[in-house]
Write a structure and sequence with these properties.
By secondary structure, this protein is mainly alpha-helical. The protein has helices at about 1-15, 25-45, 50-60.
């Protein structure tokens, strides 16, 4: 069990957060990691400028094509 906990701790370190946000539980960490990985993949496969892509996502809200539905997570 210790190795799973340390793996989640390491995974949390890769998910961008604000300093005031709480420590995410395992249940919270997994969907966030999936969404963040999906966003990064979409940025890399997009033909637009990565900076503009992120700006558009933050203005309009991210609606990635491969976002997991709530029933899948």
């Amino acid at each position: 069990m210790l190795s799973i906990n340390s793996a989640f701790d390491e995974l949390r370190g890769y998910i961008p957060t604000f300093p005031y946000e709480k420590h995410f539980s395992k249940i919270d960490t997994l969907p966030l990691a999936i969404a963040y990985t999906t966003l990064l993949t979409d940025i890399l496969t997009s033909e637009s400028n990565p900076k503009l892509y992120v700006q558009n996502c933050t203005k309009e809200g991210y609606k990635g094509s491969r976002m997991p539905s709530e029933t899948q997570v």
